[in-house]
Amino acid sequence: MAEYLSPGVFVEDTSFRSKSIDGVSTSTTGFVGPTRFGRRAGTPNLLTSLLEFEHAYGDGLPLEYGGASMPNYLWHAARAFFDNGGRQLYIARVFRPLAGPYPPPDFALAAQTTPDLYDDGHARATIGTSTQSSGAITMRARFPGAGGNLGVQLTVNRGRNLLGGTTAAPTLTSLADHDAVWIGGTKTPRLSSTPEPGAFYLAEFDTAEQTWRFRAKATKSPTDLRLHHRNPKLSLDPTRRTEVRVISLTVTLVYPDTRTSTWDGLPLDPRHEQNGMPDSVSAVFADASSPPNGRSATPLVMTLGREITDGLALLRSLIAHKATLAGSLNHPTSTATDRSVMMTLHGGNDGQRPTVGDYRGVTDAMTHAGTGLRVLEQLTRMSR
Q1: 284 close to 273: Cβ distance less than 8 angstroms
Q2: pLDDT tens readout for residues 79-90
Q3: 99-107, long-range: CB within 8 Å, 24+ apart, which pairs?
Q4: What are phi and psi for residue 83, nearest 5 degrees?
Q5: Would 147 disulfide with which of 58, 63, 239, 263, CB 3.0-4.6 Å?
Q6: What's the pLDDT tens digit per position in 28-53?
């Protein structure tokens, strides 16, 4: 209708034809169905490409139900959507476990009704004697599905030398509380260029002595090394080619379709923080709904046994699993493979074929998180 800005008599022609149907945008949509990996409940991520879909929900390989394969229709639908100009996609994944409720009451008590497959669909692996061992490192795919049968490579890195200064005034740069460190060097200055085998310590700033302390045991000792101490035997001397190098972890995940994801420079000690936020390997791969520092949820969950209370205990667990690891860390030319522990998560599966009720979904009365179609109902943009 025209807008009239002044008084007067106006003639307006009006069409008596039926109004045409207005076009609606098809650049944003939502799909519901099974995938090989990814979250099952809660607000889904906004996806803008097939690559993002595969990172979040797995590849396009067929789904396996009781030995029978079914085409991965949702992956094909996502591919067709983006190939035909689609821009924004929401996915509501449905998953039905082999047995029991989902999620299970306790992920640590993994049941196997079917040989080699876990009832809850999550792939797992353990460094140690068993998942119940107090010194074990347990790894679990964060989400159920055969796409969670990941390869995991834990590479122990030895950083650059941080020790400088003089005998009377040694200095350390870029060291943080609870850093695991390697300390080594030569006893005779200028006579040898080959470092002696070092040892592993935990670095802590001693506020009482106002210096860095390096302990090799679970508790402090009067014989701990210091950055500077009145007893020369306990003090670090950069002129004797002593070196202090931070030990960190690189975690590399290899997906079934050979894609990889890498997290580098992760501190070993669970108490380690950066800017007041936990940033250790166990914090980054914690079994929590809200990862630290605003990170998105990682595909892997890592749980440490009760005895692994600091970075040294974690390092010793890795060395116990691979006896040559300590020697490789002492060797300046060791390769990443020499310093790596490799595991493969197993037992992940696609569960049972979903039913109509799984597609319909439910809403949790406590968390209000939905599954199936209920997920899309909760999205404001999709419901308009």
Answers
A1: no
A2: 999 999 999 999
A3: 102/40, 102/144, 107/140, 107/287, 107/301
A4: -65, -25
A5: 58
A6: 899 999 999 999 988 888 899 999 99
